[in-house]
Amino acid sequence: MKILYVITRSEIGGAQAVVLAYLRSLRDRVDLALATGEEGFLADEARALGVSVFVVPELVPEISPRLDGRAVRALYRIIRAYKPDLVHAHSSKAGLLGRLASSLARIPSVFTAHGFAFTENAGALRRIMAILSESVATKLGNAVIAVSDYDGDLAVRCHVLARNEVHVIHNGIADVSFRATPAAEPQVNIAMVARFATPKAHDCLLRALNGLQGNFKLWLIGDGPNMEAARAQSVELGLGRRVIFMGARCDVPELLGKAHVFVLASNYEGLPISILEAMRAGLPVVATDVGGVRECVRDQVTGFLVPRADVGGLRTRLFDLISSPALRERMGHAGRKLYEAEFTESVMIEKSMEVYEAVLTAAKPRTTWQQQLARDEHREELPAFNGVSPHSHSIKTLPLS
User: What is the rounded CA–CA span in Å between residue 121 and residue 311?
Assistant: First the structure.
């Protein structure tokens, strides 16, 4: 089997972590390639695994009719050259363009929605456009994976998908050796791992810290366009040395092993990888009750859920954990057990492979077309792009002329 994964951004992020999990887990079982819109973390990690990487600079997150058309053309040419049995696209923009290119090339495709863009907390115009876009894209692909029951139900309620057209597969992550000791004292380290960008709500968290009592520090791990605004807000609120801006880090598991509480303030979510990382480390979690968050944070058991934008509720629940080492330890232990039972990488991969097999079985006539294509091309070797063979493990940037 040959699979091409498509994603827009190559930064450190939840969707990228999921794609990396697929590449890492399947590299010894199938032939893999990655198409992404930029250089960065994911492209580097893929290369290190020996996975072929295609870089398509026109594959950008923003809507751009000119660039979007060129991106579809580039993806189509990658598909024709690499000849995958299946294309698996991740994130909204790559999901639309990847499925369109796959349909044009007559290759079956799967799309994983890491939180649909028409989530209930999005603006009215954004929701309408996203519903229309996904309704069209769904007809181009062969299967849709939602990372939470919330998203699966949302797609059905919005009449984007029928119940039998969406597969719910929770995100999963590989285990690591780093474990937290949440009951340790005296200082309580509170960690939030998230980009300073939509849909995260760093502003809400910082306001919750204003007036929060106890011996604690907040570690904000990540970067993004809203980082400087958060710094200014922290100074304005007089939080001073209590808030540490750590920037983007590659040692998140180690940092979580040194934390005592995890927090995630958001306006909307799919099923956050950062929460799974915290549970894996054995940390209690305080999180906004949006999207699929309640499917991994069990309120009063593995942590606390608070309503969206509830500054007072967030402050109260953080205080509950800061003031009780025993509560931190009990909830952290429960979170670790839940991770082991439901959110491991192996569970996600095996369920995804079942979807792959079902799609390929239903698309057997397309396999016959691929065989005909090979005969039509006289079984020639794949052409080189910019002098580099697509079979190599270096970056390929396709000419668009």
Answer: 17
